[in-house]
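step=encode ok
step=design start
structure_in=
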């Protein structure tokens, strides 16, 4: 059984509702849930908040945090996660923010740097990962990592 199906089936069995807030993965995370049959039993919905303006407007990410830490940071991943939870109250909330490339990286924040927020059972996990590859490979690796991580949590 594919990992995506395995994780989704476990979430359905445990009635764990899901919502997503994505930046660097651009909807791939949400699609990885909804491409599977029966996903509507637990997947509530998601946001693609690519711009800072939308992060602020939809998820209540603070402008001061965006300015101080930048969109690709531990703090923003957590604020996205908290904003998502406040809106939808799903049992599982997931946020992604990062630099998928090919440009946009700096010495301190290179291409492939990603922050992933996962909220489950009232606990926030903020993970910092560095993925290598093309833009598409980085996005896929991020989503695969998230599913593997969730599989260990549930």
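sequence_out=
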């Amino acid at each position: 059984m594919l990992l995506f199906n395995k994780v989704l089936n476990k979430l359905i069995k445990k009635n764990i509702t899901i919502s997503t807030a994505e930046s660097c993965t651009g909807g791939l995370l949400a699609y990885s849930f909804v491409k599977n049959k029966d996903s509507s039993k637990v997947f509530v919905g998601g946001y693609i908040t690519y711009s800072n303006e939308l992060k602020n407007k939809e998820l209540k990410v603070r402008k001061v945090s965006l300015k101080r830490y930048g969109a690709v940071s531990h703090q923003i991943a957590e604020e996205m996660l908290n904003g998502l939870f406040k809106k939808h109250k799903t049992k599982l909330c997931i946020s992604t923010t990062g630099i998928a490339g090919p440009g946009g990286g700096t010495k301190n924040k290179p291409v492939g740097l990603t922050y992933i927020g996962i909220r489950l059972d009232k606990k926030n996990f903020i993970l910092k990962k560095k993925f290598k590859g093309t833009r598409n490979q980085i996005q896929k690796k991020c989503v695969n990592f998230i599913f593997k991580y969730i599989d260990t949590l549930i």
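step=design ok
step=annotate ok -> The longest strand covers residues 113-120.
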